[in-house]
Amino acid sequence: MIVAAAPLSEQLGNALVIGVITGAVYSLLAVGIVLVYKASGVFNFAQGEFGTVAVYLAYVASDGNYWGLPFGIALVIGLAGAVALGLLTERLVIRPLFDAPRVTLLVATAGVALFAIGVQFWRFNDPAIRSFPAIFKESARITVLGIRISDQRILILLVLAALAVVLVAFFRSPLGLAVLAASQEPVASELVGVSVRKISSLTWALAALFGGLAGILQAAPNGGIGSFQPGFLTFGGNGALIPGFTAAVLGGMGSLPGAVGGGLIIGVVEALGGLSLFEEVPGARSVMVFGILLLVLLVRPQGLFVRRAAH
Question: CA 207, CA 201: separation in Å to the nearest integer?
């Protein structure tokens, strides 16, 4: 029993560590999804493509066959491109359709995602998997639960923690309170001088920034050379959009802390689903994630981190 328990204990430790790190990426996407939903009531299916566009722009800016810029500058260009796409989506797609049924807006954001993927295929002529360099070359300098963790993965956690602190401070500031007011009472907000249109642009820009960060961190997760291809965050083996949406719903679509917590839960559940105990079950990770999601929706449809409304 002791001999058998040791490998399982090691697997559990590895699953917990990797699950939290993977869940941090899901949390970044979920926070962006919740921001847009809180501000406009829109389910944004373009969130994953904000990240993919950031990765492609950073790749073009840093690769010697293209612009050949320093990697730090390339990352800034990638994030700026993601923010620009978010602003264009809000201005050219969401704002003209804002009074349409919400399902129309949902389909419109899906259309933005498919358009972005099509441009990626067209611009690079093929769906080839490309290499993306890590932000840090050093790796595995920290050990948690006996698991060596790369600097890149530590960076993912630090980025999530920093953004959580920034969001708390932001929503306690006058501008953050204006965002909340515009989302809950847009007419009254306009009457007191708050521009709902500017607030909408701001939230889409922030959501795109979080998507861009998630994409760049997901493209190179191991401190070595990562990989990406068209639509890799939305679809593909590394697809994080559906887990990100699941995290947002799990935590409560109106709760930013819930989005963070939901992402971490989904990451850990997926990692546990990949243990050798379940390796013979096809799609075990997805089955576990959506099984738990269904259970939560049946028991607490408002999400785990949102209080049930009083009747």
Answer: 10
Residue 117 placed within a domain: yes
- Counting the structural domains of the chain, the total is 1
Question: In which domain, by residue range, is 82 found?
Answer: 28-238
Task: Give a yes or no: residue 292 inside a domain.
Answer: no
State the pTM of this model: 0.86
Structure-token pair, residue 78: 């990638």
* Residue 270 lies inside a defined structural domain of this protein: no
Residue type, 89: T
Give CA–CA dist 249/301, Å, rounded: 9
Could you tell me if residue 157 is inside a domain?
yes
Are residues 31 and 41 in contact, defined by beta-carbon separation less than 8 angstroms? no
pLDDT tens-place string over residues 238-292: 578 888 888 898 888 878 888 888 898 888 888 877 665 555 565 666 677 677 7
